[in-house]
Write a structure and sequence with these properties.
By secondary structure, this protein is mainly alpha-helical. 70% of the residues lie in helices and 0% in strands.
């Protein structure tokens, strides 16, 4: 019991600074009403994971349709979490080390990302953030 408690303390000490920095980032972006997605803030376009936070909140409220609309891969998160938690199990290890399965998953992510651009863009969450840093830098050099 004492060792488990010490492991928890070591974990909190090790990850305290990144967690505090992330919390500060979320607080500042929310307080000033800025875009809080780093990729959208930088280039203006959403990433493949765009809408995942809203999808998780909708999933926690058992609104499965809205969760799917925000990001269809929200339903894969429990599977990924289980795979990460049990990665030491031999069958999970074989699946995670199979390059074809990993390539197929990456391909599915990009196909869904493109389809979301075709069918959802420019609606939330696949909207364009016009105050992005790339546009600002380009306008400075014009």
């Amino acid at each position: 019991m004492k060792r488990a408690f010490q492991n928890i303390i070591n974990f909190l000490i090790q990850f305290n600074i990144p967690i505090c920095l992330f919390g500060l980032y979320v607080f500042i972006t929310h307080a000033f009403g800025w875009q809080n997605c780093i990729i959208k803030l930088t280039i203006g376009y959403p990433c493949p994971g765009c809408g995942m936070s809203r999808a998780m909140f909708a999933l926690l409220q058992f609104d499965f349709v809205k969760a799917f609309q925000y990001n269809p891969f929200v339903f894969a998160l429990p599977i990924v979490g289980i795979a990460i938690a049990f990665q030491h199990v031999s069958i999970i290890k074989k699946i995670l080390n199979n390059k074809w399965i990993c390539l197929a998953l990456i391909g599915m992510v990009f196909i869904v990302y493109i389809l979301r651009f075709v069918y959802v863009y420019p609606k939330v969450p696949m909207d364009y953030y016009k105050y992005n840093l790339l546009s600002l830098i380009i306008s400075i050099f014009k």
